[in-house]
Design a protein that fits this description.
- The longest helix has 23 residues.
- Helices cover 11% and strands 41% of the residues.
- The strands form four sheets. Strands 2-3-4-5-1-24-23-22 form an eight-stranded mixed beta sheet, with no helix packed on it. Strands 14-15-16-17-21-20-19-18 form an eight-stranded mixed beta sheet, with no helix packed on it.
- With 372 residues, it is mainly beta.
- It is globular and about 55 Å long.
- It contains three helices and 24 strands.
Length: 372
């Protein structure tokens, strides 16, 4: 393509769009009697007119309509597994856990807060449920509510709180499941500390909470009354490839035999942390497929673990030797246009929480059954 040279630099005949940018910059030569528009060539004018033309608008509409049409078709497609749909006030729901005693799903808001979705006794699959906000703390505005854990013996919900964009604050909040009164808020890191992001939480038999830091790949231990007890780090948490450290420790569960199982997001590494042996860390050897992009975890039996992992939405991992080794025994492919971030169990069935809601102004979210 031939273009007009810039008068102040005749050796720089850049083609559009660079030539256009150069001609419109203050480095271009023009006098007070010559309009700037004269420095744009005929072809450049043609390009500008094309982007403003009806044909371009039609083209843009068609291109944008294709993914929208695909999403609509996926939303309406019949499946052989059950899906709980619910209307929400927000687009992003990070985690969901089933509360059997309250007959409700509890969900965390990426914009901060917690909601509940009641499932009535007479529920039928065609019913779209409604989300109700139960927690919205003004002093935590600007922070996300990430992973959550039910602590039924103490009638409370534990919530990992974090500054997702700036990584300047991480905390753990506890709320009474009956009144939603906040029981404590523990600061895990602040602006003066290294960057961190509290991501997920698990609770042991004594009520101690374990919070993963997906930014710094460490685990905070918080006592039953909210006191910060310790911080666990280990060289095994740092992969050899630097880029795999961009998203570190994520989903975490407590095993009834007294140890933690935690996943590293980008490496897919699964770790066993034995609390009875001084927080001994071991890499679990996993066969049968990678666990890369693993997010939320749910222990559905002492030997079986569900990993929510984006798409394919979920993987079932099984161990027969106390989680020294494990193997991927099943994979589940959920909706391609959604992103699985957490797992929970309701009435013996596993459901995967998906991050993104669809629709406007009412956003529709999906809790999709993982068919084992």
């Amino acid at each position: 393509m031939k273009c007009r040279k810039n008068k102040s630099n005749p050796n720089n005949p850049l083609p559009p769009p660079f030539g256009l940018y150069l001609n419109l910059s203050f480095f271009s030569y023009f006098d007070s009697t010559t309009p700037l528009i004269t420095h744009i060539t005929v072809k450049e004018k043609g390009m500008a007119l094309w982007f403003c033309s009806a044909r371009f608008l039609v083209f843009l509409f068609i291109v944008s309509a294709l993914p929208i049409a695909y999403i609509i078709s996926q939303e309406r497609a019949k499946t052989d597994h059950h899906v709980f749909h619910y209307h929400s006030s927000g687009f992003f729901r990070e985690c969901a856990k089933w509360d059997d005693q309250g007959r409700r799903f509890l969900v965390s808001f990426l914009e901060g807060g917690v909601g509940e979705i009641h499932v009535p006794q007479n529920y039928t699959p065609d019913v779209v449920l409604q989300e109700v906000t139960v927690v919205k703390d003004s002093d935590l505005t600007g922070n996300a509510s990430n992973g959550i854990a039910l602590d039924r013996p103490r009638n409370r919900l534990l919530v990992a709180v974090a500054d997702v964009l700036g990584n300047r604050y991480s905390g753990l909040a506890a709320y009474d499941l009956s009144t939603w009164k906040r029981l404590f808020l523990t600061k895990l890191s602040g602006p003066g500390d290294e960057k961190s992001m509290a991501d997920d939480v698990a609770v042991d038999a004594d009520g101690n909470a374990y919070v993963t830091d997906v930014k710094g790949s460490k685990i905070w231990k918080v006592g039953v009354d909210g006191e910060l007890l310790s911080t666990l780090t280990n060289p095994l948490f740092t992969p050899k490839e630097w880029y795999k450290s961009l998203l570190g420790l994520n989903g975490i569960v407590y095993h009834p035999d007294g140890y933690l199982i935690v996943i590293h997001t980008l490496s897919g590494n699964l770790f066993k942390i034995d609390l009875a042996k001084g927080d001994e860390v071991k890499l679990i050897e996993v066969t049968g497929g990678p666990l890369a992009f693993g997010d939320g975890l749910e222990l559905i039996s002492p030997t079986k673990l569900v990993v929510a992992a984006g798409n394919p939405s979920g993987r079932l991992v099984e161990s027969t030797d106390g989680w020294e080794t494990a193997s991927v025994v099943a994979k589940f492919k959920g909706p391609m246009h959604r992103l699985a971030t957490a797992a929970t169990v309701k009435d013996g069935k596993v459901y995967l929480n998906h991050m993104f809601g669809m629709g406007y102004p009412r956003k529709t979210h999906a809790l999709v059954e993982f068919v084992l």
